[in-house]
Amino acid sequence: MNKLQLFWLLRKNTKLSAKRHPMFEANQWGKFFGYLAFSFVAIEFIALGTFFGWLAAKEDIPEMIFILMFFLLIVDFFIRFASQQTPLMLVKPYLLTPISKYTAIDCFLISQIFDLGNFAWMTVFLPYAFIVWCGGLPGWTTIGMLCLLHLWVVINSQWYLLVRTLVNQSMFWWLLPAVVYGAMILPIFFLPDAISDKIFDFIGEKIFEPYALSWWAFLFLAVVFAILFLINRHLQMHLVYDEISKNEKTKLKHVSEFAALNRFGQIGEYLKLEIKSTMRNKSIRSRFIQGICFIGFFSLAIAFGDIYQGSFSRTFLGFYAFIFFGAVNLTKVMCPEGNYIDLLMVHEENILTLLRAKYYYYCAILIVPVLLQLPPVIMGQYSILMVLAFLFTATGPVYCMLFQLAVYNKDTLPLNDKITGKNQMENKWQGILSMVAMFVPVVLVMTLEAIFDSNTAYIVLIVIGLAFTLTEQFWMRSIYRRMMLRRYQNLEGFHTTR
Length: 498
What we know:
This protein has 498 residues and is an all-alpha fold. It has helices at 3-20, 24-59, 64-83, 101-113, 122-134, 139-169, 175-190, 193-211, 215-244, 265-280, 282-304, 311-329, 341-344, 350-364, 367-372, 374-378, 384-403, 428-451, 454-470, 472-485, 487-496.
């Protein structure tokens, strides 16, 4: 069996493995909502490509797209963090077989190159290329330009894979993309306009105009791609072996007992569990730190920049700051506990106490977005009333809605398997409620602002939020009762997916 046949066999086995997973049918809902969202984005991308293609044809600058590629690649990089994982479960079953360990890694890396997600940017490139071709660019040159643009995207996928793998090991590796993208973006904001114009003119006239559509560009990008591919090949194999063999470096350190929570009895014990899970478990800790980074970035951008000054942008990013932690963690509520769900069933109302502790914990950590929203408040972009509306909307109707997933979630979530673990939507309600939590509050506040004024809209949201927050014990008990009605069905799911 040659390498090509082995590649197709491994690819076929990977697809069959996904279909055999107990939650395969439920995951189809996540894919459906993903395709639906992409269809709307694709329409925007086609319009974007058409506009820039028309502008490039009018100015007779077909290489304009390569200047824009730097910004498109930044967007592509962060989109991959939200939608693309590093599923090296592909490698694990084959480590004890006669197949070369690097062959399995190569299969994964090559599948990344031909992943359909890499072709999503063709919704921008194809309209652009068609218009500049109609504007006089030779046909073969146009095809070469499309190949170059796609090669940029493929290189970006390898760069993303490298950064994502390193970040999974230590959050300090976030400094790597921060330095790279900061060197590209910050000069635009801090340098005087005259100097920025000279830099762009130099890049356009001395680099892109003579070399963007030349064979030298192909050669340079091919070398960059080869280097990133080889680095990923070595790094992925090294880290997968460490994770599968549980080869972790540990050191003794002081463990806080959080004695202040003892006064709250059993709820206090579960609060300790939530705090220690955030501190110790890689998956939860990384999501928490990423949330702080994203919220802090958007907060500073709103406070000191002009890019997010639209009503929708400011409202959406304001709600995003308070809903983020619930949207990424509470959609998986009870999934980590699936590892020891049997123990929670021993005593009556154990799970109810756990759910209430989770609610109090996720209400308490909202102090983080409150503090991060201080710069926009100080700069006059947000009002105190606006922040309170965001806060109580999160603790009230949004959390009430997300905790309903405790009734339907029945897929165990690994706590520490980050590289070889999975991170998919286990049922249709996770995708639906996550989208509702993100967008419905924004639509509601904008509707109220259209009918009344902004202050009235925020007061209405605060009243609704307080009504849900103060009646937490009633709707939480309703959730617990419905969980108990489905307990055997859920237990079976948790056992099957461990």
